[in-house]
Model the fold of this input.
Amino acid sequence: MRPARMATARAALLLGGGVALALGWSLPAGGAFAADAIRADRAPLIAQTETKPEAYPKRHRGVQRSGLPLPRFASLRARKVNLRAGPGVRYPVEWVYQRRGLPVMITAEFDAWRKIKDWRGTEGWVHRAMLTGKRTVITIAREVVLRRKPAKDAPAVARAEGGVIARVLSCAGAWCRIEAGGFRGWGRRRALWGTLKGETIE
Done:
């Protein structure tokens, strides 16, 4: 390590975690450097569109089900997905998702359309072609420590900031094993959004 980098590192250790995070590093509670930090994509997750009340057609009649369990989780297939007010292209687009892989909960079905809810509680309809069965989660805590084993005292592998989208490898009990930023590790389920309560994923 070059002298300038060593001096900066020492300053970060003396001044605490705020400086370290600003430099792209993470500090564990003990004061020594932890594993790498996983940054969230800074692109907007979702953007609102302007709609006019008169653009809304008549309400659809009921909801048809495909036989798959509801609710269930899926993820967005494309980088741009329109969230509509109802199940059809005649309904206005209220929001536009802008991040591939974002987890969503499917709560209802109507023909080729799926009613979804995101991590913030926003609801609307998307075409089934815009969804995939690949399971992902989004970190909803300010920081999520990924550990080598599903135990709070296990060594840290990496630290993910809020808003990171990660692939789900498995889930059991209070822990999920996820992959993000080239790192794999176990994170607390309560700090992740994208799984049903008590759901086991293998």
